[in-house]
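User: Sequence in, structure out. Go.
Assistant: Echoing your sequence, followed by the structure tokens.
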Amino acid sequence: MVGRAGIGGVIVFTVTTDAAGNVTLDQVRAVVHPTTDPNEPVSLSADNLVTLTATITDKDGDSSSALLNIGQNLTFLDDGPTISAPGASASLTSLHDALPISDKDGDSSSALLNIGQNLTFLDDGPTAIVPASAVVANGAGAPVSFDLDIDGILTNNYGADGGTVIFPTSLEGTASGLTSNGISIVYDVSADGHTLTGLAGATSVFVITLNPATASYSVDMNGTVDSITTVDFNGGGYDFVGGNGAWAGFNTAANDDSKDLLLTPIESGVSSGTLNTNANEGGVSGGNSVGSGEKMRLDFVVDLTGNPPNGSYSSPSTHLFEGHYTTNGASAKFTGISSQSAARFAAFDDPDGVGNVTVGDGVQDSVTAVALSYNGETKLVTFADISTTTTNVTVGGHVFTVHFVDGAAPGLQYEAVVGSILQNTSIATYTANGYNSLQIGYESGDTFKLGDFGAAASTNSPVSFALPVSVVDGDNDTAAGTIGITLSPTGQTIQNHSSDLAGDSHLYTSTLAAPHIIGSDFNDTLNGDGANNVLYGGAGNDSINGNAGNDLLIGGAGQDTMTGGTGADTFKLDGLDIKDLIADYSGAQGDKIDLSSLFETGPGANIGDFVKYDSASHTLSVDANGTTGGANFVDVAVLQNAPVAGTINLIYDDTAHTQHTATI
């Protein structure tokens, strides 16, 4: 039997029977169930609509039949829908989705799925900025502004949350590694993070102001940052001259304008006695120490030569030199102390002239500060802080005393007296503008020996340093950036073409009157001369040529080609996403590559985790995060003349703002 949907319609079900009397109902299509019960039974409306006749026949052909009404015994159960939530529910249950399902005749089923942690909101965190490098004159002047990002826009760095740019609070109170008149410059950060002041004691040397609203920053120089080279007489190729003679010193074997040290004795206020010293420590005359009435005089001279004679010192002696050089913060270590000592420090400016090798005839300078180093700690004590008052100063867990006393001109020149000096204390001496001769004399207590001498010699070179900044968006996500600042030598003019227009000439050449150049925002050619030039390309794909001299070449924002020429040149790279071309790198000439604007290492970090050089492709690559987050090196420069590995001299900074050098 066949059941159809209407007369001649599609088959809905069939009913069949076999010889054994088994009835089979085969439902082909759905039938209507009037309620929402998912298992509702439906049968035919009358039992006699379907009948089954059973006939039985015996052996001799007799038969009998019976009729069975089976219409309402054929039942169609509703196949209602089901649903389940696969997998474990998310732990965030504050957001639910009830998922109902209905079939054709209105039956439905539902299940609850917790989907809170399957809904992900990606943060549009800030992106790093690449500030334009600043090149300004090293000395007091008007503020100069530069872009905080190379595209001149910050809104595309913030994301939808908005944001600002600040100096990180970690800079507050930290030493910069720079000095002004020998005094360490310490960073002071404003409460809003937008202003950083470099302080030498209480004196403002420079102010860096971030202006996020204009996507710029300004550099305002109020003073001068020292351009110095550190001299360690116990290393760096120096030889000790002397023993137990009229004088002693440290020099180099060559006549190479080296910054040397001459040591001479003073007894009872006059140049006499002998120096009983070795390369590590010594004193005056027979005691091999500095005692009552004795001083050791340190003269900072160029190309010291001669052999110390036996017997007492008299000036002029057998020492020769080309002249003095200016230092500030020269230091000496005190040894040979069994209890405690006190010493007096006096600074002088010794005259020079053709054939003038006399020492001890200088004009006294006023000592303005001393720095005490003991047991791993250093503390600066200034005349401005304590004047002539004897003051207790705790350094490395020990209490020293410091006071300043009148020198040759009362009220004008001062000497420093430091008391309670222990074994292995180092003391550095400062004046306002440096000096070239220093006397260290016995004041009281134990006698002492002096050694481990150091000096900081002034140079006329550019000073470069880097400052980290942070891009902070509206929900306090951060991204990093670094401002690179170069101070051109004091008194030298900078050609500033940063505001030149597209139609202007973009060929710029150094002159005697203006040896340093800042390029425009276009594709420039910058040519140095025979001097030590600072050449900054700015934006654009620039060609920068140092020619002769020890030049500083700063590529800037574009993809630049830098050619140092002869001399010991420094190539400064500004951006991780820029691949500059360095045409003539030469480690033999003293060339260096400055990466301080690209990354900072942690203390004691392995530079190989941050920089690598591929000698096959001649490519220098940087990973700004080191080992953090895995290796992510990006190419920053190609060294066209293919120097071999092991000759690439690098400059970089650590997170304590100390500059380092390395060779890879």
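User: And one key feature?
Assistant: Residues 2-77 form one domain.
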